[in-house]
Amino acid sequence: MIVELEQAQKAEPLFDGWQETMVWSCLQGVMGKMYADSLESPASAMVLLGDFCFLAGKPDKDFFVEKNWAWFGKGRQDFMIMVPKDEGWAALIEKYLAGKADKVTRYAIKKEPDIFHRGMLQAAIERLPEGYVLQMIDEALFWRCKEIKWCGNWVAQYEDYAEYQKYGLGAVIMKEGEPVSGASSYSSYAGGIEIEVDTREDCRRKGLAYICAAKLILECLERGWYPSWDAQNKESVALAEKLGYHFDYEYVAYEVYLRRG
Q1: CA–CA gap between residue 150 and residue 152 (Å, rounded)
Q2: Dihedral angle computed from the Cα positions of residues 260, 64, 76 and 102, in that order, rounded to the nearest 10 degrees
Q3: What is the pLDDT of residues 145-164, one digit of tens each?
Q4: 247 vs 111, 179, 218, 230, 234, CA distance in Å?
């Protein structure tokens, strides 16, 4: 049985020690949903936020069955990134979502609040090439990003601009009135954001993502927020390190296509 926990903190012990801001977002009641096997005494639980699912507690096959994932995907999405807390959950993903789940390696970046060199980040911003404009996401740009598939994740987890203005933050490079690169909050938690960075395909390899991320980090520091970074690939790790972050460890995740097969 899967039930939604309105009081997500009841499952907090199951996620103890997991340094993942999207889990924190849910536990704090900022965004995301918590599902568990019991309303009062959960032994197995999952956090769902955007495209991500985090599985913790007792790896239970009765809790984790394919029909439940078909239900989650119905009418919402067909793609999800599942992150198991241990090998037991990983085994369940591989068994019950066989043919739908691709095992991948992701890269955790250390959370170190005092590592950033403001002068270096400011120097990066000043390298903006001629013909481009760097700006923060305002209301008009928020709604424009909602309409554009490749950069929709900059604002996708926020219902409206009022919510984004309260919890989110983003820096975007514009060219001829359209966004071509940006760094924004994929999600938010009390005290910080999880960064999402992307550049339009025809504008890549020009250093634009570096400039946007530098601007976003500086803006976060001004607000007393921590700009958390998690890397999908080694290129993202390299960009993070260029900005001052440090690599922590590799971890296993599964890219799941719920309607595949």
Answers
A1: 6
A2: -40
A3: 999 999 999 999 999 999 99
A4: 10, 29, 20, 9, 10
Cα–Cα distance, 179 to 165 (Å, whole number): 19
What distance in Å separates the CA atoms of residue 76 and residue 208, rounded to the nearest whole number? 32
CA distance 26 to 225: 17
Mean residue pLDDT across the chain = 95
End-to-end CA distance of the chain: 24
pLDDT tens across 232-245, in order? 999 999 999 999 99
Tokens of 232: 């999908």
Spans of the chain, pLDDT less than 50: none
CA distance 152 to 146: 5
What is the predicted pLDDT for the residue at 158? 98
